[in-house]
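Extended Data, record Helix-turn-helix transcriptional regulator
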Amino acid sequence: MDGTHFMRARRLLGKTQKQMAELLGISLKAVCSYEQGWRRVPPHVERQVYFLIASRRGLAEGMTPCWEAKDCPDERRRCCPAWEFNAGRLCWFISGTVCECNAHRNWDEKMRICKECHVLGQILDMFAEP
């Protein structure tokens, strides 16, 4: 997530920079630094921002679980934490999911795959240029 996307997310949530800092448990200076592009948005903040947008907009409730959308076989479902915890609408939020037949080692690797998937794509579409 870059500074422009962070700012759009904050605006989608209807928050000032100060309110966003309080909501995320970070400093106002960090919010300003992200939006200006002086600092990279850390993975835990990016994850929380996507979660808040999905929750606020009610997107998660209307979505098809990822294992159904991707037609995952039973053996893959059984070893995936998204299926185990019935979180197929928020699979991008959970580390260790088994997309592309492998568990992801870190957040950046996971996000490269998730950002191309329609499950997270529904949230990311809100960040598209008007």
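Summary. Residues 1-52 form a domain with the 434 Repressor (Amino-terminal Domain) fold (CATH 1.10.260.40).
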